[in-house]
Here is the input.
Amino acid sequence: MHHLNDAQLLKNFSYINGSWHSSASDIAVNNPATGKLVAKVSNAGIAETELAVKAAKGAFKAWAAKSANERATLLRKWFDLMMANQEDLGRILTLEQGKPLAEAKGEIAYGAAFIEWFSEEGKRVYGDTIPAPAGDKRIVVIKQPIGVVAAITPWNFPNAMIARKAAAALASGCTFVVRPATQTPLSALAMAELAERAGIPAGVFNVVVGDDARGMGKVLTEHKDVAKFTFTGSTAVGKLLISQCAATVKKVSMELGGNAPFIVFDDANIDDAVAGALVSKYRNAGQTCVCTNRILVQEGVLAEFTEKFVAAVKDLSLGDGLTEGVTIGPMISAQAVSEVKKLIDASINQGAKLALGDDETTLGASFLVPSVLTGVTNDMPIANNEIFGPVSPIISFKEESEAIAIANDTEFGLASYFYSRDIGRIWRVAEGLEFGMVGINEGLISNAAAPFGGMKQSGNGREGSKYGLDDYLEIKYLCMGGLDK
Ligand code: NAP
Here is the structure.
């Protein structure tokens, strides 16, 4: 019914210790574009989560003992299978998440790229030797896999948020348990099916699907056999999970919310800035953590930028992600639409103007017409909240220092962007922005080779790049003494 080339990729059970587990009740996975049922998935809970941790613990020694080359060969097979099944995986992703098929296939390639990258990077987990303070001693540093890794991931990138973590964990020699978001478990389960086909041993990669976020989350954050916890999601939930990890002093990585500024200076190439803002804001219907949240435009180019940007946003084609030509899909749910509408209305009440987007759509309650608000100030709700929807607030500024101050005036510090052709300004602004990632004349910044992560309340740790392995490794110092005897 879903036109998959390989129907076996649509799975309905949690994947624990190399087998598929059914539970007493089911979760319905619905298509956000149509509201129709895509699949039912067995609803696992605390017991299955404990089982998955046990399986990961049981598999750890043997997986860690494999050479980096052996792990790389298996990970490479997993990557190859994901790419060979990109069309089906993309279709499953669109069905459960809503993004246009081309974007969904892009996410599969993006997620797979992390598996490819870390399969190679795992071979370069170098240690160190350090000159010792005494002649009869030697200092040697080795790095070892930390152990069982537990992960909780969100619905906005149902494949890539798992791949980014699992790839680094497995390449380092760790075993892995993930609880995907309740709304989007199918992409995670399809990854498990392909991991099995790739020959990744039982217990190394486990997926537990269930709607008891709190209960399952407690197991994953509090279990004594989990050595490391990694989360991608909202800052509010991240804070709670950090506190739950405290009792067992787990190493944690947090990829949390953002409030990205996108600054357009007078000297920018305006057409490039419009294209960059469009992709950075409206990709995934504005539901990415690195989405532009506030567009700051210098007064001299405000009219030109706004006119061109509104025209470009008008050209987006809203609809079901499986329909040919659609460039922007539904939001995840009708409730998500009404949350964003509240931010728009509250900001209009405070003086913002709707330059685009007041048209009603007949597509359904989970669709929001791409919108642009002008005359916004940084204290309005649309600017000081993470919007997570297809709305662009435009804020004007006079001076460079004012732009940096407005940009940094948020508790978040994930992604930021600015457009300028002035080399001095580029350095000043890049160094002045308090964000983990800065796109300079570029609106799409994430790839497997680069360190992804945030400052301030956007989290800690980095995913991707050579730095991404550190989160899954322990540094061990060997002090060798008595060498003069
Ligand atoms: P969320 O509400 O924090 O949910 C994320 C995950 O946490 C889901 O799996 C959810 O399960 C689970 N969860 C919720 N409450 C929990 C609890 N008390 N204990 C354990 N687990 C719990 O976030 P979201 O709204 O789905 O996702 C959007 C957020 O993620 C945004 O803030 C976005 O910026 C952030 N994000 C960050 C990055 C990054 O790399 N920095 C990337 C993508 C998204 P259920 O599905 O069952 O609710």
About this structure: The chain has a mean pLDDT of 97. The domain at 260-447 is CATH 3.40.309.10 (Aldehyde Dehydrogenase; Chain A, domain 2). The two ends are 75 Å apart (CA to CA). DSSP finds 14 helices and 22 strands in the chain.
